[in-house]
Aminopyrimidine aminohydrolase (Azospirillum brasilense), 227 residues
Amino acid sequence: MTVSSAVDLFDRLATEAADEWAAYVDHTFVQQMGRGTLPVASFRHYLVQDYLFLIHFARAYALAVYKGQSLDDMHAAFGGLKAILDVEMDLHVRLCAGWGLSAAELEWAPEAKATLAYTRYVLETGLRGDLLDLHVALAPCVVGYAEIGTRLAASPSGLAAGNPYRSWIAEYSGDTYQEVAAGARATLDRLAARGMTEQRFPQLLTTFRQACRLEADFWQMGLTRAD
Ligand SMILES: Cc1ncc(C[n+]2csc(CCO)c2C)c(N)n1
């Protein structure tokens, strides 16, 4: 049986994994960014690790090029890879500079265990499986930040002039990032519509759940400045 697309795949995964999803998008780190009370040292620790995360995220898109089943798939993944390498990394390095982190500090930072666990889990899931497995592993990361941005922008102090994290919130709640997230959801639906069988759903849900847990651990690592 092929899965009906009455409910999109992302919504189905997030509904079934509601606890893990909530623990990720409503983590203490996120709440404190919204209120502007997050310690600067925690945010800086997070930014350094996010630099390392983004490098592996680019590798995951390179894997998506390799796992493509058509030239269209390969072009779509290549577009994502190019955007990260040509645009996102530069933006991130500039954001870090604004928080007093030099390019050398980013380059030489040791990778925290939470960064290692999350990024290698995504890559391994993609290596072992097909393009749908890989995109399900990537979905919490891409779509979750859009939800977090939207929630924080609507919160009382999210975009207040005195909130030091307002530009981060503005970035992820902005139209450009919201479109990236909508694209990730559409990709999941496109891949599922190719004939995903209902039998695959439990395995995909396990992957989605794990990725949410690893995202929550990533926030926790930032909060506690864990190595
Ligand atoms: C731990 C962590 N999870 C998700 C994102 C969000 N994100 C992932 S890739 C990317 C670039 C464009 O797709 C963005 C913004 C992040 N930065 N760090």
In short: The pocket of VIB is lined by residues 50, 53, 57, 84, 88, 141-142, 145, 180, 215, 218 (CB under 6 Å). The chain has one domain: 9-222. The radius of gyration is 17 Å.
